[in-house]
Design a protein that fits this description.
Blueprint (H helix, E strand, L loop, with lengths): L1 H17 L5 E11 L6 H11 L9 E7 L1 E5 L5 E4 L14 E5 L3 E10 L5
Parallel strand pairs: 1-2
Antiparallel strand pairs: 1-6, 3-4, 3-5
Length: about 120
């Protein structure tokens, strides 16, 4: 269940950024999950509330977007979205492609609010 470790890593990254904004609280974390990341978005969403208690992310929402796999063909230069099971150029059929997106789990943005407890 590496999704729990991913939740904790996302929270750590969010807390580092939050430290730059005194008097604010985390309201939501926006995360992109790539098709080839090996991460199950539903499991990530399910585990986030279990990883966030006693952190700055307690009560925050995890908003997940799916990032499809994208490749660039080294033969014809075409860039395209491809199925994870078909990593070939859809234009020329070449298997000589470079993966350019869809293989990571990225914290893309944070939504913050004023901390009601700060005077």
């Amino acid at each position: 269940m590496h999704e729990l470790a991913l939740c904790r890593a996302l929270i750590t990254c969010a807390e580092r950024e939050l430290a730059k904004h005194p008097g604010r609280q985390l309201r939501a974390l926006q995360v992109s999950v790539g098709a080839l990341s090996g991460c199950e978005p539903d499991l990530l969403a399910h585990l986030f509330p279990h990883a966030s208690p006693y952190t700055s992310a307690a009560g925050a929402k995890l908003e997940i977007t799916f990032q499809p796999a994208r490749v660039r063909c080294t033969r014809c230069g075409q860039e395209a979205e491809v199925a994870p099971s078909a990593l070939c150029c859809p234009a020329c059929g070449s298997p000589a492609v470079q993966l350019i997106a869809g293989d990571g789990v990225l914290l893309t943005s944070l939504t913050l609010r004023e901390d009601a407890h700060v005077q």
